[in-house]
Design brief:
The complex is a heterodimer.
Chain A (H helix, E strand, L loop, with lengths): L8 H33 L22 H9 L2 H32 L5 H10 L5 H14 L6 H5 L6 H12 L3 H9 L4 H12 L1 H17 L2 H6 L8 H11 L4 H21 L1 H14 L1
Helix pairs in contact in A: 1-13, 2-13, 3-7, 3-10, 8-9, 10-14, 12-13
Chain B lengths: L6 H27 L2 E2 L7 E2 L3 H8 L1 H32 L6 H13 L2 H12 L4 H8 L16 H25 L4 H9 L4 H29 L3 H6 L11 H11 L3 H30 L2
Helix pairs in contact in B: 1-12, 2-12, 3-7, 3-9, 3-11, 4-7, 7-9, 9-12, 11-12
Classes of the chains: A mainly alpha, B mainly alpha.
């Protein structure tokens, strides 16, 4: 970068400043709607939130709306449901996809190619077509309003199998063979030799699955109608439908329900962004 | 290898049971149901192609299909092009660049319900957007973004783009970081300017990623539902109703399961083109 010749120092500074201005403008566009929501959530009952021109900052910031919304919005219950659904989906997905990927990457058996093609072909089928029969099947299996009902349709994905298979294929075969010499069976090789070596792929799959399970709306909307089983997006959707007139409460509820995922994201942002980059290249 | 013949199938079993029960079997059932009249209360009755005939005569179906195509045509170019520039921007070696990368990614991890509420508030008649446009003298009177038949679909499209930018930016960032520095160094020696480097090196080298983003964003646009459900409910006067929203309301509000399945089969056929290209691209990466 320092190789750019004859650039007067002031030009470099101008370039830097304009880049930062551009970055800040885009940032305002990306998180502006959330900041505006936060400002509304902090406005007191005495302030007219519908005034024009709108006041960007609250006159007397107050946390009262957050207290009020917690009384009508069972945040902890919804958070618990969201967490159970997301964690179950991730654990089962990583497990089932890695199990299925192992023979596809490592063994020769009858029907291997056709099985692999069929698994990959599932990517082409939109869930929006399947949701109708899956709903009927889930009702028959007694899965309505259960965690399993929310989780099971999503616990094996072609993307996951593909990603794990790619990861297994990069591990040298000699490692399996020497483990087999030592008397390990296939399951032990999978668990003790291969799984520890594909941790980066597991992290990628975990992040992908977690984000989509956490934000999933359409399927829970269909399979859950009991308030006690609502995940955060469903609960928030109901809150905004019920308190249409009180925007302070809706805003406070929306901000509260953002907190968990934003916290996880900020703590693990390295993995989120790294995982998305790897998923992009391999998937 | 000295393995039991059954071993590979045992490893495949759990995943295949799930895919069989929740994708293959439902797929067949959906196709079969699309030829029946089924309301969940009485037994399904076979009606041959009646659902499809009825669909093609239904103005609302055509409207939602048109809206879906408008969505596709509007959203995909934005999601293919803008993130390239964002990726170049956050690929600069500047202090605090990781902060900006994360800030751009925040809409991706936020649920669409929160995003919908936030934008609903931005779009209010006396809300932030009208105020900003008023300040810039772009509009003379406030626009009811989400409640006018002229703007509702467009307003929701902006939210889809906004929410997807960060995701596709990261895909391009992965692409940018795979371009060898030596190409840019050689261009510097030849005295190339920023724009020449962008059009002669960056964009050609990113072409495989452009293809991936085009396919992914097209498939996503064809299936758009949540933004619509949360922000406009398909309204006003169905002006922002898309195909998947139509399928959802036919199936789960009106319990026309057979009819909705037929519309679902149409959706499947429409996405198939993109999916097949997708598979081909994946297959190319996969052939070693």
């Amino acid at each position: 970068m320092a190789k750019q010749k004859n650039q007067a120092p002031y030009r470099k500074i101008v370039k830097k400043i304009s880049l930062y201005i551009l970055l800040i403008v885009v940032t305002l566009f990306m998180i502006g709607p959330f900041l505006w929501l936060l400002s509304t959530a902090l406005k007191s009952g005495g302030e007219n939130i519908f005034q024009y021109p709108p006041k960007l900052l609250p006159e007397e910031p107050t946390f009262k709306n957050f207290g009020t919304v917690m009384e009508v919005f069972p945040f902890w219950r919804y958070l618990f449901n969201s967490a159970v659904v997301a964690v179950l989906t991730v654990v089962l997905n990583v497990l089932f996809c890695s199990l299925a990927a192992y023979p596809l990457a490592r063994m020769n058996f009858k029907g291997k190619n056709i099985i692999f093609v069929l698994i990959i072909a599932t990517m082409m089928i939109p869930f929006q077509l399947l949701m109708i029969p899956v709903y009927i099947i889930s009702l028959k299996l007694g899965l309505q309003n259960t965690y399993l009902g929310m989780v099971l349709p999503h616990v094996t994905t072609a993307f996951g199998v593909f990603l794990m298979r790619q990861a297994f294929m990069t591990v040298p075969k000699s490692l399996d063979e020497s483990a087999r010499m030592d008397g390990a069976n296939s399951f032990q090789i999978w668990l003790r030799v291969l799984m520890p070596l594909v941790k980066p792929a597991m992290v990628t799959l975990t992040i992908f699955t977690f984000v989509s399970a956490w934000g999933d709306f359409l399927w829970p909307l269909i399979i859950v109608n009991d308030n006690d089983m609502y995940t955060l997006p469903l609960g928030l959707n109901m809150l905004s439908g019920t308190f249409t007139s009180d925007w302070r409460l809706i805003a406070a509820g929306a901000i509260i329900s953002m907190i968990p995922i934003i916290t996880i994201f900020l703590l693990l942002q390295r993995f989120f962004i790294g995982g998305a980059m790897k998923g992009a290249i391999k998937g | 290898m000295r393995t039991n013949k059954l071993t590979p199938y045992l490893f495949l079993l759990p995943g295949c049971i799930i895919l069989g029960a929740f994708i293959f079997y439902p797929m067949l059932q959906a196709i079969w149901m699309s030829f029946t009249d089924y309301n969940m209360i009485t037994d399904p009755s076979f009606v041959q192609f009646d659902n499809y005939k009825q669909l093609f005569q239904d103005d609302l179906f055509w409207k939602t299909l048109t809206n879906t195509l408008i969505y596709l045509v509007g959203v995909v170019p934005a999601l293919v092009i803008i993130p390239i520039f964002l990726a170049v921007l956050v690929n600069q070696k500047l202090k605090g660049i990781a902060f900006f990368r994360s800030a751009f990614y925040i809409p991706v991890v936020t649920s669409l319900v929160v995003a919908g509420i936030a934008w609903d508030w931005v779009y209010k008649e006396n809300g932030l957007l009208n105020y900003v446009l008023d300040l810039l003298n772009i509009i003379s009177e406030p626009i009811p973004w989400l409640t006018s038949t002229n703007t509702a679909l467009f307003a929701v499209m902006v939210v889809t783009v906004w929410k997807g930018l960060g995701y596709y930016m990261i895909i391009y960032l992965a692409g940018l970081q795979s371009i060898p520095d030596s190409l840019y160094e050689a261009a510097d020696i030849d005295g190339a300017n920023w724009w020449q480097k962008m059009t002669r090196i960056t964009i050609p080298m990113l072409m495989p990623f452009v293809l991936i983003v085009t396919i992914m964003s097209s498939i996503a646009a064809m299936k758009v539902f949540e933004e619509i459900y949360v922000m406009t409910g398909g309204g006003p006067l169905h002006s922002s109703e898309t195909l998947v929203f139509y399928i959802y309301t036919e199936a789960f509000d009106r319990l026309n399961m057979g009819y909705a399945s037929a519309a679902g089969v149409i959706l499947f056929i429409l996405t198939l083109v993109f999916s097949l290209i997708n598979l081909k691209v994946m297959g190319k990466d996969n052939s070693e």
